[in-house]
Amino acid sequence: MPDDDDFKPKLGRPRANGSKAGRKFLHQVLAASNLAKGGGDARKPLFTGARIGRGVGAGRVLASRDRYAAFRQRRVIIKSRIVKLADKGMDGARAHLRYIQRDGVTREGEPGQLYDAQENDTRDKAFLDRADGDRHQFRFIVSAEDGAEYVDLKPLTRRLMARMEEDLATRLDWVAVDHFNTGHPHTHILVRGCDEKGKDLIIARDYITTGMRERAAEIVSLDFGPRSDSEIENRLRREIEQERLTSIDRRLVREMDEMGVVAATDRDAFQQSLRAGRLQKLRRLGLAEELRPGGWWLEEGLVDTLRRMGERGDIIKTLHREMARQNIVRSPTDYAIFDTTDANTKSVVGRVMARGLSDEIKDRHYLIVDGVDGRAHYIDIGKGDATDPTPEGNIVRVRPKNIEPKEVDRAVAEIAAANGERYNIDIHLQHDPRATESFAEIHNRRLEAIRRVTGAIDREPDGTWIIAPDHLDRVREYERGQAKSAPVIVDKLSHLTLDQQIGADGATWLDRELMTNTPEPTSDFGFGREVREAQARRRQWLIAEGLAHEERNGIKYRADMLDSLRRRELTRVGGELSNQLGLGYVETRHGEAVEGTLRRAIELASGKYAVIEKSRELTLVPWRPVLDRHIGRHVSGMMRGDSISWTIGRQRGLGIS
After folding, report:
1. How do 593-604 and 634-640 pair as beta strands?
2. CATH of the domain at 172
3. 246 shares its domain with 112
4. 66-83, pLDDT tens digit by residue?
5. Residues 33, 188 contacting (CB under 8 angstroms)
6. In this structure, are 570 and 602 located in the same domain?
């Protein structure tokens, strides 16, 4: 018989509850430790977890070096990210490896070459197989200021990883790819999140933030020698007029008192000249003010403001570089940055000029859109997989993502308010007898999605949700978090260029603009002027085809013009597919049922269409994005005007309307 003191612990993931909801277990441990040490007493050092992990000693030593040593050393920038591999993390790791090995990243424009400590051409599958089951993965981007001077970056990377192994006291399993497709050659490094014994690899915070960069700078300085005094002085002089955060600013912020005042004087004559010059520049920017001789007040939030100014400057350079590449002449006033945080920001319609990466380590992408308003717009579109491919020349509409609660959220709040702050499917059906169970299930899935991400909604064991009075505010916070990875919605209006649309036999974007009562306002220059000229040529084509005619007050279009163009194109493309596949083409009209196997999607002037095959026939029907996951499966639906209501699967399936 077991002793009363015996117990069997059930280990699992710590669950947040009560007032601690949403807090990570480590944060609770840190809070409890700090409380035991005296809470917020500034005289007692708080436990932050910074000393947890390998390399803590080396990291602290390297971080505490003389700050002027950084001026002597060659500069190296290292961006780091720790990625969890649970759930679908391995899919992300595979996608990341494919991305860093993409075409055009070498000096010769070839695909990237994956290498490790021994081999110059290793296989990503072998690395992924070894990493299968790892809790996390480290990703680094190493960019030396003098990287262009290296013929080959592999020796530099291997020496750096060897030094890291010494500092961390363990062998590291890593792969890397060198990129030369930007102005600053750099290396992507992936490190498995386990040590040589197979245990989780925890690297100290100081080592990741400072130690690794210092080690890389040591190696580059050994290769090219330290900076001379004249190099250091010239670099610091250039910082005086820069509209970004500089090393001079960081020193000023460190030395200011609790009132935000800093002295302009310095014991060193050269340093004093730097401070005086920089303070005058900050005054012109409205970020500093001289209170008294030798005493300057610095604007609150100076660091963040200068950092944003630097980012804006980088964006303007990107816009200018893209304009030069395409031989487009624009004045600086014709550049615009799409700001999703501004409530007054409106949608942008235009031609895609370029798509690129603004942050490789975080996979942040941008679009440059030549708008019909005559301006070139820089648009942060977030994660790469959040937006479908948008090739150059596509005409798109970009709009900010709406973070306001949806109708389902308002319905949940209303039903819960009338039922004691409780919600479940049965309560929903009792509150609204017209609702179906499948309709109520949509609300249930929405709550589960919010809970899984934020943990801000509680659920009782029987599945009943506890809906707080501020539920809609919590939904806004959830949507705001989602918008960080996908801040905009990109609608593809046409995959055809303006020249291709002028003589196309389908219902083009130009036609829709000509027919609508609220066309996009176009400017007299830039892409707006090109659109006006293309519309004039399209009108002449429509008149020649008998789809429009001239009247005293302008051009009169046939009421069924768009339908006629759409049917004309579908008949032509359907005939071509019929000849290729040996199947008869059947047109599907409003109110008719559609059933068959979804074969593929096809891009037409009239839009994107699905190819449905049944027995010895095929038909073309409007495409829906949700169909991407169901190619090759049996589908059925009903045509409703220009759209279709789908059912996936032969019997009980997913209805899409």
Report:
1. antiparallel
2. 3.30.930
3. no
4. 545 556 678 898 999 999
5. no
6. yes
Kindly state whether residue 490 falls inside one of the protein's structural domains. Answer: no
Domain co-membership, 86 together with 182 = yes
Alpha-carbon span 184 to 75, nearest angstrom:
12
Identify whether residues 132 and 73 lie together within a single domain: yes
pLDDT tens figures, 453-510:
888 899 999 999 999 999 999 999 999 988 888 899 999 999 999 999 999 999 999 9
Cα(177)–Cα(82) distance, rounded to whole angstroms? 18
From the number of C-beta atoms within 10 Å of its C-beta (0-12, 13-18, 19+), residue 404 rates as exposed
SS3 string, 136-177, reads EEEEEEEEECCHHHCCCCHHHHHHHHHHHHHHHCCCCCEEEE
Nearest alpha-carbon partner for 369 in 346, 392, 389, 386: 392
Instruction: Indicate if 194 and 236 belong to the same structural domain.
Output: no
Write out pLDDT tens, residues 140-175.
Answer: 999 998 888 899 999 999 999 999 999 999 999 999
* CB-neighbour burial class of residue 186 (10 A; exposed 0-12, middle 13-18, buried 19+): buried
Q: Which domain holds residue 607?
A: 563-656
Residues 425 and 450 in one domain: yes
Q: How far apart are CA 306 and CA 243, in angstroms?
A: 7
CB atoms within 10 A of CB 419: 16
**Tokens coding 531:** 């659109």
State the number of CA atoms in the 13 A half-sphere of 647 facing the CB: 12
Structure tokens at 143: 């960019």
How many Å apart are CA 635 and CA 654, to the nearest integer? Answer: 10
End-to-end CA distance of the chain: 63
Bridge-partner residues for 349, per DSSP? Answer: 397
What DSSP state is assigned to residue 83?
A: E
Tokens of 320: 């200018």
Pick the last residue of a domain from 485, 518, 547: 485
pLDDT band (50, 70, 90) for residue 16: very low
DSSP three-state, residue 565? helix
| Alpha carbons within 13 A on the beta-carbon side of 260 | 12
Question: If you ran DSSP here, which 8-state letter would residue 519 be given?
Answer: P
Number of domains in the chain: 7
Query: Exposure of 64 by Cβ count < 10 A (0-12 exposed, 13-18 middle, 19+ buried)?
Result: exposed
* Token output for 485: 């990875």
**How far apart are the C-alpha atoms of 243 and 564, rounded to whole Å?**
56
